[in-house]
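Reviewer comment 2.1 asked that we show a complete input and output for one of the modelled complexes. We chose the zinc ion case, as it is the one discussed in the main text.
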Amino acid sequence: MVESTGLQRPSRSAPADAGPGYSGRLATTAFGAPSLSHWCLWIEPLPSPPDRWSQRWSLAVEAALTSWSSLLPIQRVDDPSRAQIVVRRRRPPRRQTPSGWRASNGRSHFSIRELTRAGRLRREPFIEVLISPGQRPTALQSTALHELGHAIGLWGHSPNNGDALAPFQTGDPVLTPSVSDRTTLDWIRSQPSQFGDLAEPTDDPAQPRLGAPRRAANTD
Ligand SMILES: [Zn+2]
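Response of the prediction step:
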């Protein structure tokens, strides 16, 4: 499931088979593909003392992360302020839809931030992922795989049940990215984007300086 600030759905006139996999179904942003060459990710640590549910949750999220990490650079960080993706052990709040209240096991929220890291002005996607701990281990892992897939740029759903980004799980849970998930991820990572480091500050005194530290801005 997806919540977004700044994502744009694919235009209806675009053919659904514009690129490989389910790339024609992916949302984009005003700054291009919601993708970074390198992600920093923070996972909510275990409580102390750890309980069985939290341990099960951590194992499932780690397994899903290991699958994606074999396909692109994702760095685990201990400080959530360094991360573009934060993963929390929390049941998503129910949402009201036209057909009634809807519960889900996972939810990802997208926003865009401009901030300074190590003196460099950057524009970054920021994704908060909520994954409910109250699931069977395989359901937990497939939920984590799906939501982390959104977080790293796959902001859409596949029509094929064998893909991690299928909206509903029927049959066996998908525990690793499919060929279609991989080719779609490769495609979104090859698309132009204006995320990452922004222009260097100018030394021309007639120009406004951009190098001063700026507060993080969130489009939320
Ligand atoms: Zn989804």
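Residues 1-2, 146, 150, 157, 167 surround zinc ion (CB under 6 Å). We note this here for comparison with the apo prediction described in Section 3.2.
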